Amino acid sequence: MVLAAMAGGMAWGIRGQYGHELGAMIFGILVGFTLVMIFMPNASSLQAARVVALFAVAIGFGGSMSYGETVGLTHDVEVHGNAGDPHWNEGAYRWGMLGLAIKGGLWIGFGGAFLGLGMGGKKYRPREMMWIGLGMMYLFVLGRWALNSPFEPQLKTLPTIYFSDHWRWEPDENVNPRPEIWGGILFAFIGLMVYLQFVKRDRLARNLAFWGLVGGLGFPIGQSLQAANAWDSVAFTNSSIWQYGVNTWNMMEVAFGTVAGLVLGFGVWLNRKYISQNGSADEVSLSIAWESWLVGIYLYVLALGWYFPDSIFILFHYHGLLMGIIPMAAIIGGRYWPFLYVFPIVAMPIVVKTFRALCGASDFVPKSIGLITLVTLPLLLLILVALKFGKQSEKRMVALPFASIGLLLTSAVYFWLNFAFFSFPWPWWTDWKGWAGQTTSGAIYVICWLTLSVAAFLFLTKPEPDKELQR
Is there a domain that residue 292 lies in? Predict the structure, then answer.
């Protein structure tokens, strides 16, 4: 639970720098590797990679939901004032926290469902996963129509249940409503749960989805700290040394990820008897040619969305459910797809965004150095590692060394990319508070990364687990 909480806190805090769906997948990678390392040491490396990959895909689904204005309902000065000039609006605070609990629960609930789907012994096939994805998209459209419409702010017509900025909470001139899609996500989640419970009878996926809903309470828990700081920042800062130089928004994200990781770790521990690690999930139904085509199509669509944001391809970036259909099928049916997904594919947008932040407006030489050090070398390393593990999986390699090395590698890559994103805030030793980096969350990242690395190294050096799978 402690390791899962640290992985979750670090990953979700780093996620804040990189965006909704794609950034959230870092949580799936780090927490996924941690849980597989602890609870599935005797599974095959292919099954372990599928668990981590499916978890990462599903965590991205909730990133499509708008939540900035929902957060604002709980702490904006225009809504509540502050301790010096109070006009406290308790209704807005409670409504905003309810919205964060719903959105956070759906976000982590999807992740829990797919985590259990991968860890359990039920067999899923690529075509089945494709139909699950298409079915969820249909329910998403239906739910958005049912719960998130009408949306006509120019006529002051908003959905009946609306968790973003609204005229009932603050003066008209401050209101800028945003469209919401949580209703579509809710319908898709309910449809998935019905399928898992009544069609597949997948008890582990169902149970971990429930614990994911509970873990989503980390969103309002973390936001309660930020709201307290917004209300009386002086008293809140003086109450704790940890508030030195703090980025309260990022600390909210760290708290969210910590709670979510801890609860998921607890949920997996409670349901550990349902975890399958006998190699029954190792069936490969996609040829290398099909895997290659699907990788190419997926990356092509993502690249078009990046470079042509005014085209239809941007929908793949706005809707995590749509983005996840190809990976869901390919991860279940392929041999190399799970490894490619957990290593280079999830990392690709992170390295690109880091490069753009540091070198996007630079001259030729700095930009060239950035392309080599921030993009080419990390992705090349991750691709080689993925291909090596994919090849070794043919011999039924066990999960423990794979998960340990995976956690060592990915935690280091994402920690240092995030450190570079903040322009390398050295040196830490010049001031006793300087080791905290750019914010207090920087110190938390250091502690979490070092702890996860030590844990992964200790697990890696443990005696070999049962070699039956290798034989």
Answer: yes
C-alpha 435/C-alpha 451 separation (Å) is 16
In angstroms, the CA 272 to CA 264 distance is: 12
Strand partners, 86: 81
Cβ–Cβ under 8 Å, residues 411 and 453:
yes
Sign of the dihedral defined by the CA atoms of residues 329, 109, 321, 351, in that order: negative
**224 Cβ partners below 8 Å, 6+ apart?**
74, 97
* Residue 236 confidence (pLDDT): 75
**Along the chain (471 residues), what's the average pLDDT of each consecutive run of 10 residues?**
96 88 92 97 94 96 92 92 88 96 97 96 93 97 96 92 91 86 97 96 97 97 91 77 70 94 98 83 88 94 84 83 94 96 95 89 84 93 96 90 97 93 66 54 88 96 59 44
At 18, is the secondary structure helix, strand, or coil?
helix
Domain count, the chain: 1
Q: Is residue 427, in this structure, part of any structural domain at all?
A: yes
Render pLDDT for 289-298 as a digit per residue (tens, 0 to 9).
999 999 999 9
pTM: 0.94
* pLDDT at res. 437: 47
Q: Give the up-direction half-sphere exposure of residue 302: CA atoms within 13 A in the CB hemisphere.
A: 18
Work out the burial of residue 455: count CB atoms within 10 Å of its CB; fewer than 13 is exposed, 13-18 middle, 19 or more buried. buried
Per-residue tokens: 352: 């690109």
Taking only the tens place, the pLDDT of each residue in 9-40 is: 999 999 988 877 888 999 999 999 999 999 99
CB-based contact 175:166 (threshold 8 Å)? yes
* DSSP collapsed to 3 states, 193-234: HHHHHHHCCCHHHHHHHHHHHHHCCHHHHHHHHHHHHHHCHH
- Output the CA torsion sign for 11, 409, 358, 62: negative
d(CA 421, CA 101): 30
The runs of H, that is alpha helices, within 343-439 are: 346-359, 364-370, 377-392, 399-421
Q: Quote the CA–CA distance of 346 and 439 in Å, as a whole number.
A: 26
281/42 Cα distance (integer angstroms): 13
Would residue 142 count as lying in a domain? yes
Tokens of 403: 């998960």
CA gap 95, 419 in Å, rounded = 36
Other CB atoms within 10 A of residue 280 CB: 13
User: Taking a C-beta distance cutoff of 8 angstroms, is the pair 92, 105 a contact?
Assistant: no
Both tokens of residue 20? 């909704």
The pLDDT score that the predictor gives to residue 16 is: 84
- 471 within a domain of the structure (yes/no): no
Q: What range does the domain containing 237 cover? A: 2-339+390-460
